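User: Need the bound-state model for cytidine-5'-diphosphate:
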Amino acid sequence: MKFCVAIDGPAAAGKGTISRAVAAHFGFAHLDTGLLYRAVGMKGGDPTQAACTLCAEDLARPDLRSLAAGEAASRVAVLPDVRAALVAFQRDFAAREGGAVLDGRDIGTVICPGAEVKLFVTASAECRAERRWRETGEGSLAEVLEQVRARDARDMGRADAPLRPAEDAITLDTTTLSIDEAVDKALVIIRARLG
Ligand code: CDP
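Assistant: Bound-state model below.
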């Protein structure tokens, strides 16, 4: 069975947590596509070359979750050649037997426009900054909020595959939801589609 769940949204909205929980619940494979961009950003050198030669070792770096890696990712993610180099891998992953969950920024709009379920997970910038600040333990809350806002603007403002909900995406605002509540809402939506 092929079944693709596309989960998009801005930084620290809860996409990763929801995606992992959904994948574990239904036994689907999960791909955090942000990790691909983080690895390209942290590899250094020419970003397109880095994207074309990305290997398992690059994806196993321990610093990929840092604020610096998020920043580097969003800078290389504006480059059309970098994005193009990562498309085939993501589409192959989405088409695997047994179901797949992909989270990112352009999964429902560009990578898998035919996904069976499309969720757009969001939350207020203040709430997302606080979550990211607690998670990374880096910088001050004000600095992290500034970074979140700058990253939102870059991700939404780029010409190639900007962050936006697909027309048929269901928006899940997690600002006032606990992790369990947000996951439950996602499970209900997916279960209904699985039939
Ligand atoms: O975890 P968080 O939401 O902060 O970030 P991420 O999903 O790891 O993505 C890091 C950056 O990679 C984003 O700010 C985007 O610029 C870029 N990205 C993208 O352009 N397209 C994707 N499918 C995934 C990430």
